[in-house]
């Protein structure tokens, strides 16, 4: 009997779904108490030490579970102040208690509500002050420290919040794009506690993503996991809404929703939790595109994803939200087969950067922001040695300040150095080129006038005359000039070219070479005499005498030839 009873009790204690027992804590009630002030010593006017204080200090990597481990009773108490004594008139201050809490904690008071947010590493909050030490002002009796009961509420800090129905493939996507390895299974609510993963890019940029437990229709009424995890998307900068291309059906008793309806349902749940969440930038991920018929399915609703307003007519009344999400990007993917995963990464980064730029009222890509930094990441890095070498080369090359600035700009940007360009004539000297000034009163010529001007006449073909050999031409010319026949007669009668008198040309009469030679000799003799008279004869005498001798020889040869002709 006893055995049966204990067996039954045991079986009652055993949890039905073990995996639902989460070690994840996101709220914790903690009692804090400042240290008691030490008593004074009236005999000597000694003052007791001040009681220690309890502080909350935000620390990266800590969890609320760590707080519970350190303070199992959920009480953090600071040390009491030292009592004044003969040996130590002024009592020592009690030791402070520093409670290390995770970054992202909101401290709540039962009466005052939210008091502070410890959303940065090292941020501190004084939870309970210590009591003052005993002195003449308080009859040398130390005061008790402050006692408070505070709630620590953790809101995860991630850049991207992943929201979707169960089984949509959220964890599969997180596994594909980040370093995390969350639990993946084909049953709903596989993920039962939020998990933060980091997406790393090739340029070492890191973006954190929060994988949240699935939401279901009616989560606001605490169905499924309820809304309790939605607080973790409050601090995210981008909502990643994920849906199964074939929609979602929790069980046979529930209605099947297609993928467009699931988007409206998620929209409604977010709105019911906090309508301001809908103002966040949002990307819609449609998963399981590898499944058969997925393309046909997505084609049915594709145009409504970009404008949810238009699709409202297809939305069941109970799912219609009063405020709609603005979807910045729609990315169909297959998380399981890792298809289009890079596109998700790219979209996430682009949207975050764009929104950050918009917040700063900047253009994108910015022209006003200095090169380098977040928005102008260098494409390549020049080593210090290369940069120094380029600087020396710039000095050597005596570049202008403008040219140096241009090269420095490329160095800073990690871009290839500019290639020097040959100045284009037209560009460099265009100012100097003659400008064709159009004539005033230009009249258009008619086609008839143009044809008459001979512009369309085709030139007649004139065959090219073969050239006479140069030596032959030279001999002919000599013959003409001297009047002596040097060119042997080829027996053919030469045609005399007679030009008309109207052209101003006379019949050609070869001059007498002998009289010509005599004239030339006389000219030279006279010229030499003149030179001799001027005292310049010595300079030219030899040359002129040589020329005269040559002419005389030629004259002799002519004379001999003539006498021979006469003899014949
Ligand atoms: N065919 C196919 N199956 C997928 C794809 N992505 C995920 N799944 C499957 O869908 C099931 C659910 O995947 P999870 O990643 O656990 O889904 P979840 O959205 O995290 O689910 P909860 O944690 O329960 O909210 C698993 O059996 C996955 O193998 C996909 O792209 N194609
Ligand atoms: Mg999951």
UniProtKB/TrEMBL annotation:
<keyword id="KW-0547">Nucleotide-binding</keyword>
<protein>
    <recommendedName>
        <fullName>OBG-type G domain-containing protein</fullName>
    </recommendedName>
</protein>
<dbReference type="InterPro" id="IPR031167">
    <property type="entry name" value="G_OBG"/>
</dbReference>
<feature type="coiled-coil region">
    <location>
        <begin position="541"/>
        <end position="568"/>
    </location>
</feature>
<dbReference type="Pfam" id="PF05250">
    <property type="entry name" value="UPF0193"/>
</dbReference>
<dbReference type="GO" id="GO:0003924">
    <property type="term" value="F:GTPase activity"/>
</dbReference>
<dbReference type="GO" id="GO:0005525">
    <property type="term" value="F:GTP binding"/>
</dbReference>
<dbReference type="InterPro" id="IPR027417">
    <property type="entry name" value="P-loop_NTPase"/>
</dbReference>
<dbReference type="Pfam" id="PF01926">
    <property type="entry name" value="MMR_HSR1"/>
</dbReference>
<dbReference type="GO" id="GO:0005739">
    <property type="term" value="C:mitochondrion"/>
</dbReference>
<dbReference type="InterPro" id="IPR006073">
    <property type="entry name" value="GTP-bd"/>
</dbReference>
<dbReference type="Pfam" id="PF01018">
    <property type="entry name" value="GTP1_OBG"/>
</dbReference>
<dbReference type="GO" id="GO:0042254">
    <property type="term" value="P:ribosome biogenesis"/>
</dbReference>
<dbReference type="InterPro" id="IPR007914">
    <property type="entry name" value="UPF0193"/>
</dbReference>
<feature type="domain" description="OBG-type G">
    <location>
        <begin position="158"/>
        <end position="353"/>
    </location>
</feature>
<feature type="domain" description="Obg">
    <location>
        <begin position="22"/>
        <end position="157"/>
    </location>
</feature>
<dbReference type="InterPro" id="IPR006169">
    <property type="entry name" value="GTP1_OBG_dom"/>
</dbReference>
<dbReference type="InterPro" id="IPR036726">
    <property type="entry name" value="GTP1_OBG_dom_sf"/>
</dbReference>
<keyword id="KW-0175">Coiled coil</keyword>
<dbReference type="InterPro" id="IPR045086">
    <property type="entry name" value="OBG_GTPase"/>
</dbReference>
<keyword id="KW-0342">GTP-binding</keyword>
